[in-house]
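Entry for the shared binder. Reason: the reviewer on the internal report wants the predicted structure included alongside the sequence.
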Amino acid sequence: MSKVEIETKDGTCPGYVYRPSGSGPWPAALIFMDGLGIRPAMLEIGERLATYGYFVLLPDLFCRSGPYEPMDPHVVFADPDQRKTLMERFFALATPANIMSDTRAFLDYLAAQPDVKPGGIGTTGYCLGGLMSLTAAGTYPDRIVATASYHGGRLATDAPDSPHLLAPKIESRVYVAGAIEDQSFPDEMKQRLEVALTSAGVDHKIETYQAKHGWVLRDTPAYDAAAAERHWQTLIELLDATLKR
């Protein structure tokens, strides 16, 4: 792993780069982190993804909020004051508009790396990042060819920046995995997203895992080892099919 600093329109964004062993160039994958920030469990996602033969960039989507200590999900979820800080200090600035502005810089960074194969890239995201991954597909359709979202929330709402409204612009192959009993992505929202993607002719699949919101990251209360492994299987199938043809 190497730490990098990416210049965005609004300042410097720290990021983490993972390269496979051997010599490149390799296809690129961009990870949109979950809503608990950069911490060991999130860094492990980037590290493992690189072992499948991908040049991986994991940017810190909370870069506008300044430096912060790694968050403990068990503490954040149990402490109302910490949840309030999370929403007011971090989420308030990590808006789709801000993150999509930053994503242009992330994509430009990847395109400039000699170790990265030219052409389209893949994205994956978790919780907050699941929304951003899908939003990026509709914002940069000429640059993203594979899009994954795991336990992403608010993917098809009445908000003017809801990702499902971008469906007509999406050119990538899309995989969305939702959780059971997830208030941020209930069954009716899954159906709304399904209709939007189908109507737009997007090559996609939406599934519901028998797991709770946040099942991929090993440090969350919802972590589910079997479902997390299924996440890896479906993610690598998607990326390999689109980026290693």
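Summary line for the report: The domain at 2-243 is CATH 3.40.50.1820 (Rossmann fold).
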